[in-house]
Known about the structure:
By secondary structure, the protein is α/β, with parallel strands linked by helices.
Amino acid sequence: MPDPAARRRTAVLISGRGSNLRALIEHCARPGASAEIALVVADQPGAPGLEHARAANIRSEIIDQKTRIELERKLNRLLQSFDVEIICLAGFMRVLSPELVAAWRDRLLNIHPSLLPAFRGLETHRRALEAGVRFHGCTVHFVRAEVDAGPIIVQGVLAVSPDDTPESLAARVLTLEHRCYPAALELVASGRAQVVNERVPIDGASAPETLLLNPVA
Ligand code: GRF
């Protein structure tokens, strides 16, 4: 039985900038946090986000193997040797195998820059503007084998302004991401968010906790 007082050991997987990693590190540095970042893994040796791990004295590892089989073999070894319990994908640009996703079912989180199930895939902000949606945002969800799909933990919502460009939307959504990902990790690590019938009821939740609203800036 895991010690309920212990903080859940979490790995964050990145490919690039790592601003969500930084938000997760900052959250976990707080005294009451339910998770700790035990390991950062990048699939790019030059990923700028690795700097956030170094600055916080968190172990980081590079897995730049060419094939998915080799990459996941190394990843599995690392996850085991660091006693990882939860994985957060934060801008990790590799698609994980269905086997790995199944092995980490309900312990593997991702953040996506749209209100899923709308706009799976890339270029979400441009596509949202083209579709003329009034609201846009981000989603933290449990990962399933299908890309950008899975039970929704937290969403962040903002109103689209007529003046928005893909760049302005991306910037505003990113600041929402930095609130949503720590909130979602906290809900999962504390045991308050659990999957039931592919939905994620939250113990004692008030709506704003799982839906973070931001008015037009
Ligand atoms: C974020 O927009 C996230 O939603 C998407 O990839 C981007 C990563 O940004 N999955 P960062 O590396 O966390 O700054």
